[in-house]
Specification:
homodimer; 599 residues; Butyryl-Coa Dehydrogenase, subunit A, domain 1; Butyryl-CoA Dehydrogenase, subunit A, domain 2; 7-stranded mixed β-sheet; two-stranded antiparallel sheet; 57% helix
Amino acid sequence: MPVFQAPTRDTRFVVNEVLDLERYRHLPGFEAATRDLTDSVIEEAGRFVNEVVAPLNLSGDQEGCTRHADGSVTTPKGFKEAYARYIEAGWGTLAAPEIYGGQGLPHVIGFVMEEYLASANQAFAMYPGLANGAISAISSKGSPEQQAMYLPKMVSGEWLGTMNLTEPHCGTDLGLIRTRAEPQMDGSYAITGTKIFISAGDHDLCENIIHLVLAKTPGAPESSKGISLFIVPKFLVNADRTLGDRNAVSVGAIEHKMGIHGNATCVMNYDGAKGWLIGEENKGLAAMFIMMNAARLGVGIQGLAQAEASYQNAVAYAVERRQGRALTGPAEPEQKADPILVHPDVRRMLMDAKMFIGGMRALCLWGALQVDLTHKAATEEERQQADDLISLLTPVIKGYGTDMGYRTATDMQQIWGGHGYIAENGMDQFVRDARIAMIYEGANGVQAMDLVGRKLALNGGRAIQRLFAVIDAECAEESADDTVKLVAERLGKATGHLKAATLWFMQHAMADRNAIGAGAYAYMTLTGVVSLGLMWLRIAKVSAKALGGDGADEAFYEAKLLCAKHWALRFAPQAGSLRYEVEAGAETVMGLTAEQFAA
Amino acid sequence: MPVFQAPTRDTRFVVNEVLDLERYRHLPGFEAATRDLTDSVIEEAGRFVNEVVAPLNLSGDQEGCTRHADGSVTTPKGFKEAYARYIEAGWGTLAAPEIYGGQGLPHVIGFVMEEYLASANQAFAMYPGLANGAISAISSKGSPEQQAMYLPKMVSGEWLGTMNLTEPHCGTDLGLIRTRAEPQMDGSYAITGTKIFISAGDHDLCENIIHLVLAKTPGAPESSKGISLFIVPKFLVNADRTLGDRNAVSVGAIEHKMGIHGNATCVMNYDGAKGWLIGEENKGLAAMFIMMNAARLGVGIQGLAQAEASYQNAVAYAVERRQGRALTGPAEPEQKADPILVHPDVRRMLMDAKMFIGGMRALCLWGALQVDLTHKAATEEERQQADDLISLLTPVIKGYGTDMGYRTATDMQQIWGGHGYIAENGMDQFVRDARIAMIYEGANGVQAMDLVGRKLALNGGRAIQRLFAVIDAECAEESADDTVKLVAERLGKATGHLKAATLWFMQHAMADRNAIGAGAYAYMTLTGVVSLGLMWLRIAKVSAKALGGDGADEAFYEAKLLCAKHWALRFAPQAGSLRYEVEAGAETVMGLTAEQFAA
């Protein structure tokens, strides 16, 4: 069975040393986040997922979910018990507001738990993960009555939630939605329609499920400006929050998927189900984006999470499996063969992975900190800066993060050779589970367009200029350390390519909209490479300083410096070719007819 | 169900216009290959796989193979009947020697059928595919008696063959083999041991299976210099080629795999099975490499094949699925949404795929031609040149070709969005099936080391210098066509990076063996990019010329020129960053201890 140990040492390094979370303790919501507290939460969270959640990953994949003849859905063996322990320990409440029974800790800490859960068992993690999006939407756009009625039990995890957007003919283009919402005399709406691909759509983990459903009211405009968001509980909720009648929503089928078999991906049928409008009619898209943005960061974390889980298993195999000899002569002559860890190409894949994981963890937790600072920083300027940066980089964390998560899982499977292709060893599950993260919550091409078509242009390009200013300042800081100097130099160069690509878009955006679309993906990847580089510059600085200290943990910090150098020597050069891909424009991409493609 | 139509138009273009196969008609084995004949074979082959083989792909994946209580193995529904029709039509005999009942056509034509079969149904294609390797080994190294006894029925396809190399503890490092071969009084050997991952190890497609098995004779050296190759038939063969007793070889289990479910991947138990030595004792590795090299080209073709099959389905979906609007305004205002083919990022993925497929098909068929010329060219110099080029590029065709095959299948699945993740739509099967090609017949990292550690250095680097000479000459040819000029210029630049990387290896090979290993993969990818570019330069020249002709098929040739330009603008720039990755050397790759990786 695959191994997994939550990477608590590295998390604590990022939280305490790279982000230095304690320096924000003067801000509301950060007061309680002392180093002692966060360290112990991180270690406890690690222990919980190691012992309770990770052991169900492979078996959950093999068993999958079941829809029974009566339409009820059960999750794989052990999920229900594990989820009960999750609620009991209050793991879902870490970063939730205290007013609804949450612990009010920074999102940074909530993200740590999201990562660990997704690493240990992505299919399981999605049950509470989807609820987070629903909680965000109700928190931001729900009425006080709705918040009081639903949030306490959703925050505690006693009830879970879902996001119902997709229909058979309608995915990215939500303007096409056909699900109808007919206003009723009592102020509710009757919801009728079919939703597909509904993750955690039904299950046996908890007593109620709060569906958030996009639908159209009569006469609504025929575009995304005509969609509204509704709360549709599986069981109606009485005024005292006890459960009432079963609502008219049912599971038509569970999809057979490439992966995340332990999560019930449902076809949901709404047959005049009772729903309540969130916010105003026709303003559903804004509320949906609140759900979606939280979910997108969560999906980016899934990329990191599958990379981490597969990496651990690849390292374990590379140390144990013996095959061939080191190129420089037998490393262990008394054995018949050396561990495959001696082979440079095996190490290349492991170093690529370790570099990505370490940088991506820093990026995700830094992103979580920006989410906190968006609401809680001391000045309006700081709040705006945080919001600019996280808005800009959310599609990068989602898109680049999940691309690299899949690539890493594939590389780690490769280290296992033929044994990686055998289902029982679990390496292919990491690949299959990682694959969905590139697709859902906005396919990565949609992320690229969100970055280039929306985020770049907002407020005259303020966010990207802000990012450049941060990078330029950090590259310009003096350092005596050779690795820090190298990383700063290469990051400066890579950022130069990103600036050039940005300028190119500005010059061509008006004249050729398709050039924006044709270069968007390369631009997103380029921004991802640069973002990782910024993280490695910070990590290198912290590590160089720590090595000049009391001599503790030297091997850890030296490994960090080597990973930073690995980024500089092997990833930073990609920036040039990605820039040239942007500058290639749309001609070859837009030139063929449908017939020529099909010929 | 997924669609598939063998791409006969493009195959004929490569065979007739790019390779111009008819110009070799003065050579033995090419006489019969008139354009009329090859065209009709190509079209017939396409019809056969479209009608007989492709319809079994998805169902074969869903059903898989079954090992029964008596140890017998059955293939998915329809495979047996399809294979019977395959033999009946003589499809396996195209490029086989006439002396054994083959049609003696060039390998180019045999490769066409291999590609079509693998596109239509990779799991099915592997049954005859594996036999090809066994046939090659017996043809080259078997005794005249062995050839007479086994080859006629293997060539006709009445018997199939397997390659038994891997054991539980022993994959790449064949020196570790434990399977024993004890000499018997009658000149045979008793083979005892367990082999794993044996593709097509047992099945119900034909009456006998000829296993080629690597084993060690008593007292053999403890390395790959101590392995011997044996013929071990499932049923012993009488002198008159009728079948005798069942041999002591049995299937212990069928593996559960990520993909290629329709192929029975078996654990094979040899319990004193009767086997006959091929060639000499302890010379098994050389015979094995004959099987392996043929198989490696075949696996490279699988990369092309899965790219083609997934591409066809992505184009079909992109034309049919409506979502969103063109960036330049509604393309079909009367509809509620435009086909997703209007979106530049969808087209980017399709163009990357079309470029790879068109270039890779030319590269594979050009490779097949070199295999033919190695044996049949008029002069020793031409034979040697062909051998140099195909030896050099075999690991590139296998390694880069399958990497790109997987990437393409993943991109094509991406175009399907969430529907691509649903098993019934078949897009995930292309990804799962394509994945194995990066692993088997030597994992792609092993290919990279074969290229850099062996092929580069052979004969003082003669092969790579030969490749450079070919490219330089073809880039230097004058052309009036702008695309041809652009492609030549960019190919020249990319080749400059490859030359620099080659020089870097020459300068560092002695001092730092690990630097060779650390850069090998990037070097293989770089060679792949350049090889595709060479093909696109040729294709562009042919197409520019055809467009100056009678005006027939203009859309086809214009699409070719645009694909060539796509390579020049969007793939050629990768050469720079790949070269820098080579030049990064081994420091960051070799620097960490096992403990640091695990921390």
